[in-house]
Automatic annotation (TrEMBL):
Gene: glyA
Pathway membership, UniProt: Amino-acid biosynthesis; glycine biosynthesis; glycine from L-serine: step 1/1; One-carbon metabolism; tetrahydrofolate interconversion
Cofactor: pyridoxal 5'-phosphate
Protein's name according to its UniProt entry: Serine hydroxymethyltransferase
MF-aspect GO terms: glycine hydroxymethyltransferase activity; methyltransferase activity; protein homodimerization activity; pyridoxal phosphate binding
Job of this protein: Catalyzes the reversible interconversion of serine and glycine with tetrahydrofolate (THF) serving as the one-carbon carrier. This reaction serves as the major source of one-carbon groups required for the biosynthesis of purines, thymidylate, methionine, and other important biomolecules. Also exhibits THF-independent aldolase activity toward beta-hydroxyamino acids, producing glycine and aldehydes, via a retro-aldol mechanism. Thus, is able to catalyze the cleavage of L-allo-threonine.
Originating species: Kutzneria albida DSM 43870
UniProt-listed GO biological process terms: glycine biosynthetic process from serine; methylation; tetrahydrofolate interconversion
Amino acid sequence: MHQPALTALTGFDPELAGLVEAEAKRQHDKIRLIASENYVSTAVLEATGTVLTNKYSEGYAGRRYYEGQQFIDPIETLAVQRAKDVFGVDHANVQPYSGSPANLAVYLAFLQPGDTVMGMALPMGGHLTHGWSVSATGKWFRAVRYGVTKETGRVDLDEVRDLARAERPKLIFCGGTAIPRTIDFPAFAEIAREVGAVLVADIAHIAGLIAGGAHPSPVGHAQVISTTTHKTLRGPRGAMLMSDAEHAAALDKAVFPGLQGGPHNHTTAGIAVALKEAAAPGFRDYAHAIVANAKALAESLVERGFDLVSGGTDNHLILVDLESKGIAGKPAAKALDRAGIELNYNTVPFDPRKPFDPSGIRLGTAAITTRGLGVEQMPQLAQWIDDTVTAANAGDEAGIERIAAQISELLAGYPMPGWA
Ligand SMILES: *Cc1c(COP(=O)(O)O)cnc(C)c1O
């Protein structure tokens, strides 16, 4: 059953409650390897399910446009203070609805339509909002894009510097959604300084690793830091913008009134709780365990003949090019889901296949680490992945079902918050 119990919901809307219950059980029964997902704590779940959702609070603490902020102001102030403490920044804004609107606020703060932005190309591991063509950020701004080199699968910073010198972007994004390697914030900062650009570190994927000291921090290098709160940071769906004192006012104005109306106070409360968890000593162990699991899983996959972009990982994320296994990303992801291993198909750099039917899969270890799986289980997990790919190629559905049964048996010993 879902925890906390859905008593009133089940009574009033059994159809909807049944779907939520089924999703909770699904999250329990799957090895969840989607790199952007996690399991939030029961405390975060409780905070996001409160009467705070009833309240309108346009503005910022002490400067609101609605009355009745006696308790909302301290809640938002607590979230802001905790963000500043966890990341060691001058300024934090916890109001962006999610990572994409947070990034749009950064454009609004520092660019005019048509100005030049530089970001990592989507098929190379960047995010849509870093100026990709189908995104508003690619339509309303002039976007130039860097990538990784074919031989190494890593960003070539000389290429980034040359591009920045030639194109003179006003804004440079570093970070992305499918980057298995450490981001060199000091090197990006040097390039941004040289061309007079504002450097934005989009740490959506790795915020929890940074909070836990398992990835270098962009603080002191990037003037602006954008992050979601729901990936490795393990909070509710939401986002934060952080910055030095100089860029604070422009960011705040861009979020409200530039882009948004009232903040989602129930989400703000959940973010405050997640940040308290991230400040607790156990979170350092969690962040390092995520990376240890990813490295162990990567090693076990390589031993079984999988071809990893960049050859391995430094963080929570693994990008696999399946060409050597004779299967495309989508049929592999679908077969793995049937086997009880949930991940997403993904473009790999220089992918000869189409984005909707690419060559790769993306894996992340944040959620399974929350669940309590450790490095000792990673060889078995790699073996299941390999066996599933083999079974899919052979059309062996019975083999896939056997793996699903083994996985369900393993996970019975690893409880999740939110379902019991
Ligand atoms: C996930 C992500 C985002 C967008 O977050 P949403 O909450 O899905 O809008 C932005 N940037 C990066 C690098 C991300 O990984």
